[in-house]
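Ops channel
N.P.: pipeline sanity check, posting one input/output pair.
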């Protein structure tokens, strides 16, 4: 239900920490994570490198599924094949909350979150209708800029090279 990182995941987290440390201004940076264990563990190397704490923000959590964990895989398959206008209000609210949180940002942040939330944010910026509009790889970096509350997609992260779990 809330797995940690594998050895490969820990290596990917160290790699992304090194990349981000070279891209960001540490003094004006916040490191934010989903409450989920794998996101927190991915954020930890960057936070340690920059001597920062990881702020946990539930707005960046995994997509909330309206089904039991045993039925989640089938539900996710249907969700990922659908479009946003067919999703219930609760899921659109989840998406909109994350987008609003990003649009309110006043400084540089590194957010460690999940495949489907990244897609939800990209959809919010681009207006695409699909729930999955690109396939970010594990530990990829999608860069978003915010100016006066308007989000702009700067660069999509590396596309998926590993299996969707």
């Amino acid at each position: 239900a809330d797995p940690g990182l594998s050895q490969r995941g820990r290596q990917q987290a160290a790699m992304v920490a090194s990349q981000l440390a070279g891209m960001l201004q540490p003094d004006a940076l916040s490191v934010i994570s989903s409450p989920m264990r794998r996101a927190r563990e991915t954020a930890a190397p960057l936070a340690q490198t920059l001597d920062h704490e990881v702020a946990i923000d539930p707005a960046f959590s995994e997509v909330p599924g309206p089904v039991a964990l045993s039925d989640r895989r089938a539900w996710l398959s249907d969700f990922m094949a659908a479009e946003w206008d067919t999703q219930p209000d609760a899921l659109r609210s989840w998406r909109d909350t994350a987008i609003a949180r990003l649009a309110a940002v006043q400084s540089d942040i590194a957010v460690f979150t999940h495949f489907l939330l990244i897609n939800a944010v990209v959809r919010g910026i681009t207006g695409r209708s699909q729930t999955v509009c690109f396939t970010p790889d594990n530990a990829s970096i999608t860069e978003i800029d915010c100016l006066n509350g308007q989000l702009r997609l700067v660069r999509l992260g590396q596309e998926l090279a590993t299996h969707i779990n």
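N.P.: looks fine end to end. The mean pLDDT is 90.
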